[in-house]
Specification:
Blueprint lengths: L12 H9 L25 E5 L2 E4 L4 E4 L14 H13 L8 H13 L5 E5 L2 H16 L3 E5 L38 H4 L2 E4 L4 H10 L4 E6 L15 H12 L2 E5 L11 H6 L5 E4 L10 E5 L1 H8 L13 H14 L2 H24 L5 E5 L2 E5 L10 H4 L4 H13 L2 E2 L8 E2 L6 H17 L1
This protein binds 4'-deoxy-4'-aminopyridoxal-5'-phosphate.
């Protein structure tokens, strides 16, 4: 029944598993984005194990890992302290579907770390927690429309899967973009509730806000646009969002699924000093287990607390996932841990900058140490918004990634995504990565 599968460590084992997977998994994969982990091959790599910042595939190759499960395994793979804590939970029961004490300790710690977090609710994935925050904002304001920014990603569910990556022919006029559903199967009614705006453009923002006066429940953004190659907010832009939302009675939601607990203990809201009404967390929060949260200021969370606005979930804050999050956040709450992550990333960013400069290859290295991307824009200037990314040299960015993979460096295969740095990355891992970067640039 099963095709022959090579012993782990033989070349082409990933290829054989992918061929076998076609018969049982739709498209051979469990998430649409996994196919893109194929790198230079026509099949994705199957990872077998990981420890620290290193992972090993079933073909017998080892990599320094800068995907780290899309930023989730922030302490590193098979982190000893986490493994020990989770093993203890496995012995005492992973889920009861009831209240548990760990969720309380976890919520208390998040309150301490995150400025906007007066009250918190847990969920299981970023998409789900985004839905929770949007529900809270709609329930509080009584409005249904949500303004999102072109190119920002807020999960796969219908709610906001609009204009994630529209191509130029669909995207509509620059200053009044069309709302483009990300996939067939998203109802027109849902798409019609999503207003799309270009990022980093105050005049366009004000015009669109004016055009939807009295209709908007929330403005949502990725404060650092992880899904647009770590495009940064221009100085003052997040403050402007805060001012406009406050003046108009619109809830400001920061989607901190990528930035949360990664860019520092208080995430992007601390880094930029702008406090949203609501924020969404996942990835680094769980340290590699599926848990997410939405958190907000008391006024907007109160209808939820009173039970008027509903939110549920069988798996929410299970002892297993809450324990993983508690151990992870206790570690990330030590400033030296996130400082180490930031410094490691900055060393890599600087190495890329120097290599690009030496080879006279136009390249913007953007983001912060904990999450960044190298973008091959025509003149090496950083991207300001999604449409700038439509003009980058994709072939070069693919070649860059393929050369790195050959040299044992594993990064997100999608050039508009970014590198995530683990706390476990060692000086040896960084040395090896810098050497691979130098070699990769020499053949680009
Ligand atoms: N928001 C952002 C900013 C994300 O990057 C992602 C996932 N990449 C999500 C939401 C959705 O999270 P999940 O995949 O856990 O549903």
């Amino acid at each position: 029944m099963n095709g022959r599968i090579q012993a782990p460590g033989e070349p082409d084992t990933s290829r054989a598993w992918f061929a076998r997977a076609q018969a049982s998994l739709a498209g051979g994969i469990s998430s649409s984005s996994r196919l893109t982990s194929a790198g230079p091959r026509s099949y994705p790599l199957y990872m077998a194990s990981g420890s620290g910042a290193r992972i090993r595939d079933v073909d017998g190759n080892e990599y320094v890992d800068y995907l780290i499960s899309y930023g989730s395994a922030i302490l590193g793979h098979a982190h000893p302290q986490l493994t020990e804590a989770l093993t203890a939970v496995l012995r005492t029961g992973t889920m009861f579907g009831t209240c548990n004490t760990v969720e309380v300790e976890l919520a208390e710690l998040i309150r301490e770390m995150v400025p906007c977090a007066d009250l918190i609710r847990f969920a299981n994935s970023g998409s789900e927690a985004v839905q929770g925050a949007v529900r809270a904002a709609r329930g509080f304001t009584g409005h249904s429309k949500i303004l999102k920014f072109e190119g920002h990603y807020h999960g796969w569910s219908d709610t906001l899967a609009v204009s994630n990556r529209p191509d130029a022919s669909q995207a509509g006029p620059y200053a009044a973009p069309r709302s483009v559903p990300h996939s067939p199967g998203i109802p027109d009614g849902v798409v019609g509730d999503v207003v799309v705006c270009p990022w980093n453009d105050p005049a366009a923002l004000r015009e669109i806000l004016d055009a939807h006066r009295g209709e908007l429940a929330a403005v949502i953004c990725e404060p650092i646009v992880a899904n647009n190659a770590c495009t940064m907010p221009e100085p003052g832009y997040l403050d402007l969002l805060r001012e406009e939302c406050s003046a108009r009675g619109i809830m400001l939601i920061f989607d901190e699924v990528c930035t949360g607990f990664r860019t520092g203990p208080g995430g992007a809201q601390t880094l930029f000093g702008v406090v949203p009404d609501l924020a969404v967390f996942s990835k680094a929060l769980g340290g590699g287990l599926p848990i997410a949260a939405f958190a907000g200021q008391r006024h907007v969370m109160e209808p939820l607390a009173q039970g008027h606005v509903k939110h549920g979930g069988t798996y929410n804050a299970s002892p297993l996932c809450a324990t993983s999050a508690l151990v992870t956040l206790r570690s990330l709450n030590q400033p030296d841990v996130t400082k180490r992550i930031d410094e490691s990333g900055r060393r890599l960013m600087e190495t890329i900058r120097r290599a690009a400069h030496d080879r006279r290859i136009p390249c913007a290295v953007q983001g912060v140490g904990a999450m960044f991307q190298a973008v091959f824009t025509a003149d090496g200037t950083p991207t300001r918004q999604y449409r700038d990314l439509l003009g980058v040299d994709r072939a070069r960015s693919d070649a860059f990634r393929h050369e790195l993979l050959k040299r044992g460096v594993h990064v997100n295969a999608y050039g508009m995504a970014c590198w995530f740095v683990a706390a476990a990355v060692t000086d040896d891992d960084l040395d090896a990565t810098c050497e691979a970067l130098g070699e990769a640039f020499s053949v680009l």
